[in-house]
Amino acid sequence: MIPLNKPCLVFPLLAIIFAGNGASSRSARAQRLLESDRPASETARIASSPSPSTRQDIFNAIQAWRMREATYYKRNWGVDILGIHIVSSGHMLEFRYNVIDAAKAAPLNEKKFQPYVLDRKSGARLTVPVMEKIGQLRQTAPPVENRTYWMVFGNEGKIVHPGDKVDVHIGSFSIAGIPVD
Q1: Both 21 and 107 in a single domain?
Q2: CA–CA separation, 11 vs 23, rounded Å?
Q3: Nearest to 113 by CA among 28, 154, 171, 30
Q4: What are residue 6's phi and psi, to 5 degrees?
Q5: How far apart are CA 121 and CA 49, in angstroms?
Q6: Residues 17, 97: one domain?
Q7: Which residue has the higher pLDDT, 20 or 110?
Q8: What is the pLDDT of residues 73-131, one digit of tens each?
């Protein structure tokens, strides 16, 4: 058991991760209230707008990207790209990769590089958040082969959605057009 009178690094991170749970039910209630005030013409326009990609379409896009691009990153950078996923109720993106060759993958964990994600649709630049007591939400230890590494990017305003394509940049390393899961 963790005493509550001692400072702990885990609580701020958990608060960020679980911050969206209560807000989603409140936002759904607020959305229903707003929809009841909309004129009928606006409600019809929203209903006719294209629906987001299905889960299967997103899965197919990710698999197609992996088939096309995986060999390049394994051969040239020594990493197997596991993907970029939406986490924390859509407020963050998590980028994961498995290290195959530690020497080639070393630039991805360099502290001097400021990684960012570029959303292709909006042009928004999403960076790695910095916590007061934890630091950047990324791993910077020297890479070890056969280990999975991650970094988290802030998605303020939920700009990036599942199925969107983004570019990941870490120093001279970059991934173009990876679909978000």
Answers
A1: no
A2: 19
A3: 171
A4: -100, 140
A5: 17
A6: no
A7: 110
A8: 999 999 999 999 999 888 999 999 999 999 999 998 888 889 999 999 989 999 988 88
